[in-house]
Design a protein that fits this description.
Length: about 200
């Protein structure tokens, strides 16, 4: 029986690589426009920012919902890249301080996207899923960083609520606090919940 011939190595042809670069450029352009304050970028503005035609945009994304999903994933990836693990052996007060400093930094990082999402989220399943995913990540981080929570679901829910965008947006936008004052409020709330 003859030996099986080796499988050919998979190669990405030039067209596929170009297509992936175009798709990535569109997603990056969408996120960049939002970060620059354009909370409702149109397909025309996204295509122009990406340096592609409108036709190219629509050939890569069936609709804006598909673009929202891809952009949401990019923002989650950027958030993950910026995350710095907090040592679990630190005393509680130092873990709280490190957590609140990091949350403030992360919430400032996602602020433009969170504001843009809030405008369309009621009508977008992709954006609703993005928010759920982000909230689950925050809850999981809290549960692993603070074993003091134990099985207290109400405590975990309270900590998650105070650590996510709606609470931060209230502190920063509705109340007009600067980052340091908002972080101090977050720290006080987390401390009060964990040391009650």
């Amino acid at each position: 029986m003859p030996a099986a011939s080796p499988r050919p190595t998979q190669r990405i042809d030039g067209r596929t690589a170009r297509s992936e670069r175009t798709r990535a450029a569109i997603v990056e352009a969408h996120v960049a426009l939002i970060r620059d304050g354009d909370l409702r970028p149109t397909a025309d503005r996204i295509a122009k920012q990406a340096g592609v035609s409108l036709r190219a945009l629509w050939s890569h994304f069936a609709d804006m919902e598909a673009l929202f999903a891809a952009s949401g994933q990019l923002i989650l990836d950027q958030r993950d890249a910026a995350y710095e693990p907090i040592p679990l052996d630190l005393p509680l007060d130092r873990r709280i301080d490190a957590y609140c400093r990091q949350r403030a930094r992360m919430l400032e990082l996602i602020a433009p996207a969170a504001k843009a999402s809030a405008l369309k989220e009621p009508f977008s399943l992709a954006l609703q899923e993005y928010r759920r995913s982000h909230t689950i990540r925050v809850s999981d981080e809290l549960a692993s960083l603070f074993p003091e929570i134990g099985d207290d679901k109400d405590l975990l829910n309270a900590l998650t609520t105070t650590s996510t965008w709606p609470a931060w947006g209230t502190l920063r936008d509705a109340m007009g606090l600067d980052v340091e004052a908002a972080r101090a409020a977050l720290t006080r709330t987390v401390t009060a919940l964990l040391t009650r």
